[in-house]
Design goal:
The protein is an all-alpha fold. The chain has a single domain, classed as Ferritin, core subunit, four-helix bundle (Ferritin). It has five helices and no strands. The chain is flat.
């Protein structure tokens, strides 16, 4: 059995290594590029959603995500410039509009907006986890661990709102043959 204390100490020791003078490997560069691309695309989607929703709580969540995305974009942008990594193309900001100016058939529902945001966040969380686990340089790994933890904290609050509003999508339950649920036991 793995000794958790020893594992924690080993992990802490690896964080204290000073390896920033090493060049990034191609995987780290690609991780930075893809994560920043994801943040850039999510930005315009969230801007559009802010223009669309009339739900005050959802709008507050979208604005919080916009602030978090801006912070992460700036950190990653600055890191990539410092390391000499070419930046991905970024779409233009969406113009501001009002929900009443969006015609029916084009306007997304709050349910769709929340689930779209949830999927984008899940995608970025997975990308950050992969980048952190594949990073050799400590600074890169820690950057993606920070991004992942920030997105996880936000996703938890978003899930609470989605449950409250009945927007969360639950896949069918799996009941293996012979389980107590199929046999009528509870």
């Amino acid at each position: 059995m793995v000794n958790l204390w020893e594992s924690a100490i080993d992990a802490f020791k690896s964080f204290t290594d000073q390896d920033e003078d090493q060049p990034l490997h191609v995987g780290e560069v690609m991780a930075c590029w893809l994560y920043l691309s994801g943040l850039e695309l999510a930005k315009v989607s969230v801007q559009t959603a802010i223009n669309t929703t009339t739900d005050d709580e959802l709008k507050a969540m979208l604005e919080e995500d916009m602030k978090l995305g801006t912070s992460q974009r700036e950190q990653l942008h600055n890191f990539m410039i410092k390391e000499g990594i070419t930046l991905p193309p970024a779409p233009e900001d969406m113009p501001k509009s009002t929900p009443s100016s969006i015609p029916p058939g084009v306007k997304l529902t709050d349910d769709v907006i929340a689930n779209d945001l949830s999927l984008k966040i899940a995608s970025l969380i997975m990308r950050a986890a992969g980048a952190a686990s594949e990073s050799i340089r400590t600074d890169v790994g820690l950057l993606f661990i920070q991004f992942q933890s920030e997105k996880l904290a936000f996703a938890t609050r978003l899930k609470q709102l989605m449950r409250k509003r009945g927007w969360i999508k639950v896949p069918p339950f799996y009941l293996p043959p012979g389980s107590k649920h199929q046999l009528g036991y509870e």
